[in-house]
Design goal:
The structure holds three protein chains of three kinds. Chain A is of the alpha+beta class. Chain A is 38% helix and 22% strand. Chain B is α/β, with parallel strands linked by helices. Chain B has a single domain, classed as 3-Layer(aba) Sandwich (Rossmann fold), CATH 3.40.50.2300. Chain B has five helices and five strands. Chain B has a five-stranded parallel β-sheet, sandwiched between helices. The N and C termini of chain B lie close together (11 Å). Chain C is an alpha+beta fold. Chain C has a single domain, classed as CheA-289, Domain 4 (OB fold (Dihydrolipoamide Acetyltransferase, E2P), Beta Barrel), CATH 2.40.50.180. Chains in contact: A-B, A-C. Chains A and C meet through strand 21 and strand 22 of A and strand 4, strand 5, strand 7 and helix 5 of C.
Amino acid sequence: MSIDISQFHQVFFEESFEGLEAMENALLDLSQGVDDPELIHLIFRSAHSIKGGSGTFGFTAVAGFTHVMETLLDQMREGEREITEAALNLLLESGDVLRDMLEAARDEGEFDAERAASTQSRLEAMLGQDSGTGATAVVSTVGDEAVAGWLIDFKPYTELLKTGNDPVRMFRELAELGDLQVEVETDALPEFHDFDPEECHLAWKLRLTGDVTREQLDEIFEWVDGDCDLSIEPLASDVMQPAQEETAGNVENPPVQEKTQDSAPPVKAVDKSGDRRVDERRKGDRRSAGSADSSIRVSIQKIDELINMVGELVITQSMLGQIGSGEIEEFDAGRLEKLRDGLQQLERNTREMQESVMQIRMLPISFSFNRFPRLVHDLSSKLGKKIDLKISGENTELDKTVMEKIGDPLVHLVRNSLDHGIEMPEERVASGKAETGVIHLNAFHQGGNIVIEISDDGGGLPADRILAKARERGLVGEDETLSHERTLELIFEPGFSTAEVVSDVSGRGVGMDVVRRNIKDLGGTIEVQSTPGEGSTFTIRLPLTLAILDGQLLSVGDETFIMPLISIIESLQVDQAMVNSVAGSTEMYRLREDYIPIVRLYDIFGIAPKTTRLQEALLVVVEHEGNKIGLMVDELLGQQQVVIKSLETNYRRVEGLSGATILGDGTVALILDVGGLISLSGRGGSGRHAGADDEQAA
Amino acid sequence: MATILAVDDSNSMRQMVSFTLKQAGHTVTEAADGVEALELARKGSFNLVISDVNMPRMDGIALIKELRTLPNYKFTPLLMLTTESGADKKQEGKAAGATGWIVKPFNPDQLLSTVKRVLG
Amino acid sequence: MEATQVEAKIEAAAMSIGLSGDEDQYLTFMLGGEEYGVDILRIQEIKGWDRITHIPNTPPYILGVINLRGAIVPVVDLRQRFGMDTSEYGPTTVVIVLKVQGEDRERIMGVVVDAVSDVYDIPETELKPAPDSAKDTIMESVSALATVEEKLVILLDVDHLLNTSELSAMDGLTG
């Protein structure tokens, strides 16, 4: 029978990558001096599992490499070898090589063979061996020549049965190899009342004739080696008559006294005694499991909750069905009441289900955070700095896709802290700080968002250098002054890097604007706070889910739009006295301390509005990345949660819109994007305070 | 045909063993470590137990030792899944009461033939 | 041909029933007095005229988007696309929902036509090449000409007609 074991490959890869992660974390813990005896065992088991699985599923390169790791780890866990920093680092590197090899195996690609080979030789050097003693010790195939037969003397010790071995089975196997004659010796049987049936007191003389190799016999008796007296002698080839030994009385009918009925041909035996060691598997049959991104692990509990909710939905639906199924004439106030109740229940069911389904895509941010201990460990030693990484809130959940996309920005920010934020140990001590710097990753929920903070206790962002650079690039006027916050925000401008030396760690300053853009694409925001000499904190806010938002419906002319509530600061009726005109064309609204540009939505969208007079319209003050504008709209309608549908699926991106949604009446409403509206209006939005030099009230 | 308990902390190995044996008509129950396996063994009744050696919580050797103390499992075939480098593991296993072993890596056919040998 | 018959033909074509190898089926429609045709396999469905949500800052021949069972589908006014005079939209005005092959994926788009005409089997041999015409929108999208029942049918290349990168190249209104 042939079973296609490639169906188990994907599971193997998944669990191997998990194992590698666990291994890496444990290695890092050990290298930081965590004193837990279980750690080395965990590391060993991870390697062992990967070795076993890779061998079974035919990934021989992986198996061979892992074997060497496992040997080293075995020595360490048995206490035969000291667990040194060098060893741990080598094992960390080996883990990387292994990951590379596994990915290559999974995606049917290539791995870095040179690196693998050199890492392996370093492992072997540490073991004090040279390569070659690796995987398989081939069993010596001695005595392969078949003889006419064998004479076997088999005397099990009394305890043999308690290992679950049964002479009967063994004889049956022997009988399949050739012609078997069995004689039992009952001399050693004790008296009946002394007789313990769980013990074996019998012995046998067996005569097996046929084309049988010594190896085949060895195999059958392999398991009971040490639990019996066994002697195997070849029969002289001309001795063919059955041995005529006296048989003691057949008190207990001996289990086996059989000639083989079907003398199975040696072919079958060969099958059994076939080398159990590794034969080189064909590399052919491999399924590329595809990228690991396409599947997700969900807790059974979440699924059960969902199933319950579906059940309730079914109940509600059938209830509504009942209400609706009576005669129209019989539809009275009572029924209407029931209908209302039913609809309310339906709304509840749907909302719960929606939340529940969203939950399924939620994973703890630890999946993203867990690459950082290694990153910090490697980079800090490379840079010669001492850095401690603290992580909190790693159980905070967020949408799987959001998490995947936030990975790179986070890496960039952490690398930045490592490279530019935390000072060299000497410098820190000189300024009275602890030698070891701290980088803190924190995550928590706030409102409908997840907040991620990356803070360090380094030197902080150099505001004056940033301002100088900005002036250099003409981003800021020579005599313009900016608030501290606005200065720091300049780092998000493209091409901005004040690093004196472009290090290969964080790159050429192409980072921050890309980071902000990526976060923006996810519907999120990023802010920075910094105090010179004390450190910096980057705060990222992301919506918990991509697909749903709370929206304010508004209308301009005949058209209905949706403004995300999160973007709205406030809505107000226009007080004409607060409207100012700058340079004849730009309208500004004075709202407390701010001058906010007014954007006539009907104008930039080319819609015929209900009114063109400001005082008859409403102003919705919205903001985007610190910029505020006031949108002139005709009416404010209700607020509701909307499902975001992409315009790009069948059409394309439209500036000023972030998508569309379908309202209750089936019509399509467009969702506004403040950033796009600001661009369209050609105004930079306000971030400036009243009293700024170049603004004059009309 | 037989009721088998398959114990291994590796998902993929467990799945493969389970699948292979089920294909051959056996009933298979899975456990991820020794503690789980022991509990299942106590509650149920198995004709054969196949167990990996290296597992968290309770390893294969300890499991075999424990099983042999249960009256139901005094003579039940207990097989270890072991790697070829563990020659002393085999001895340890036998000392604990293992019936025999299957050497990793193995393919489904090898598994089946060994199981057949032990079930008779 | 009646609407239901047309729909039945569309479905049948999608399942490759009743088609012989060298014939293709085309759905024809009327536009400004002329008869045009598109490959029936490109047709997802035919909708009656429905409320369209206008999208700001788009070329005039993009009427807006509609809700097609939860999907947001843009609708193109072919008359405007071809530079013809616009007309009133009435009860016979229909929207033909087409599957358009973009560079990376398939999109669903609707086109507004005056009326749906018929479904014809036109063998390849009957197709005549379109006349060369530089920079004429209509001509660029014509894949072939055919004579059916003594009428001229202008066969259109759906992808070329509705390729969105082209559409975006056409408008210079967005920032």
